[in-house]
Amino acid sequence: MKNLDFSKGKISNLILAQALPLTVAQLVHLLYNIVDRIYLGHLPGHGSMALTGVGITFPIITLIAAFTNLYGTGGTPLFSIARGAKDEERAEKLMGTTACLLAVTSIVLMAVCYVFRKPILYAFGASDASYAYADQYLQIYLLGTLFSMTATGMNGFINAQGFPRMGMLTVMIGAVLNLILDPLFIFGFNMGVRGAAAATVISQVVSAVWVVRFLLKDTIPVRLKQHNFRIVPSMASEIIKVGTAGFVMQGTNCLVQVLCNRTLSIYGGDLYVGVMTVLNSVREILSLPVSGMTGGAQPVIGYNYGAKEYGRVKSAIRFMTLIGSAYTVCAWLIVFLFPGFFIRLFSSDAAMITPGISAMHIYFFGFPLMSFQMSGQTTFQSLGKSKYAIFFSLLRKAFIVAPLTVLLPKLMGVNGVFAAEPVSNALGGLACFITMYFVVYRKLGKEAV
Predict the structure, then answer these.
(1) Phi, psi at residue 308, to the nearest 5°?
(2) Which residue in 142, 225, 379, 401 has the fewest CB atoms around it within 10 Å?
(3) Of the given ranges (155-169, 222-236, 297-311), which has the lowest mean pLDDT?
């Protein structure tokens, strides 16, 4: 297989070649959970409550994703830099250490969350009515933790070697299987919420097996070798240091989800927890192209930085930011003009439509500024500047949106929960990007950064 050199060729073409398949892969991967929510939201008689119950489990699912990001987004940039410096031995050890960290952590997370799931779900905003659905889903979903973390955390090593189409296929296989199994298990076998979780776990198993099999092939530039499947303490430390930004981003998402669910249950009840489940789902879908673009840019930026091609690094940052900004403006206009379409996609409950439309207009108001946060974060992570990435992750979620989620409802009622998001996008996103511009971008090629 071809060993792609990111230091040659047009930057925009390299990024798009990585980003387009990666976006498709992420979209397909998102279907694991999105399709569950669509089917469950239309269950006859209790669709809204089933949707609310699954929404209560979001913080736990996000926590699992946070640990996946800790190792995946930590190991992949270091891996790209090592390849750019032509140090393949180090790249192999980084891959093996990342795989081992993912495996060990997944087992611990699965055990802890399973044993303490009842107090955790109630602490995360479950009511007596929604707990039954949340518990049914979580009991089965947790069984796939090892496979979920392996598939997602290790797929980045495929993309970082210049095989984004294969990275797309590894995800697509499992997601297509999930699309097939969901209606069969939910409606055909009459398993309801349990069926949605079972379909997801089976699909995650298939995706994980596919990823690992590809990384074991001796035809790829850097493969996963058995003797490297161990934790090298020094490399684990580096991985965690760089990946902490990704962990903090997802970890603070977990915090915000908990605060949102608890606050909404107080000011609006289970119906508004269901509305937030829909809003989170729509945001995940609409954020994918930006995530794909930044994900596609990351190995290009990291490789060229390792190769000391600073002009190409700056070109990659400019292209990533421009495309991300243009897209988010278009996405916001679509949501503003057609909010009812997105609400009805996830729920047929008439009681959810009107409050859902109002909440969507507020929640997505600052969506275009999200791209600046992601561009800044990606640049910091790609260059291994974890301190800046961690700070701005904490700033937006922990220090802006989390307090506002608690404080604004005291002034605005339930709408205050939804208003916290656009405010954090504006303040946090601009602060992150402006700092990146002055601290990193302007200095590239002039002095060591």
Answers:
(1) 65, 30
(2) 225
(3) 155-169
Look at residues 17, 5, 12, 19 and name the one whose alpha carbon lies nearest to residue 374.
Answer: 19
Q: Which residue has the tokens 């090629």?
A: 445
Q: Is 113:137 a contact under the CB 8 Å cutoff?
A: no
Using alpha carbons, select from 58, 17, 71 the residue that is nearest to residue 316: 17
Pair of tokens at residue 17:
């070649």
Helix, strand, coil % over all residues of the chain, rounded to 5: 85, 0, 15
Mean pLDDT along residues 396-404: 92
Place of tokens 């190995």: 299
CB 130 within 8 A of CB 265: no
Do 176 and 210 meet the contact criterion of CB atoms below 8 Å apart? no
With a cut of 60, say whether residue 448 has pLDDT above it. Answer: no
**Whole-prediction pTM:** 0.79
For residue 384, is it left (φ>0), alpha (ψ between -120 and 50) or beta? left
User: What was the pLDDT predicted at 32?
Assistant: 67
69, 75, 80, 82 alpha-carbon torsion, rounded to 10°: 170
Average pLDDT of every residue of the chain: 90
Residue 449 predicted with pLDDT over 70:
no
The values of phi and psi at residue 227, to 5°, are -70, -15
Cβ(417)–Cβ(401) below 8 Å:
no
φ/ψ region of 5 (left if φ > 0, alpha if ψ in -120 to 50, else beta) reads beta
Q: Among the listed ranges 57-71, 101-115, 165-179, 223-237, which one has the minimum average pLDDT value?
A: 165-179
Q: What are the start-end ranges of the H helices in 124-232?
A: 128-141, 145-159, 164-183, 193-215
Alpha-carbon separation of residue 303 from 87, 157, 293, 382, 443 (angstroms) = 12, 13, 16, 9, 18
Q: From CA 173, how far away is CA 147, in angstroms rounded? A: 14
At 399, list the tokens.
């220090």
Query: How many CB atoms are located within 10 Å of the residue 177 CB?
Result: 19
**Domain ranges, ordered by start, for the chain:** 11-443
pLDDT for 1? 42
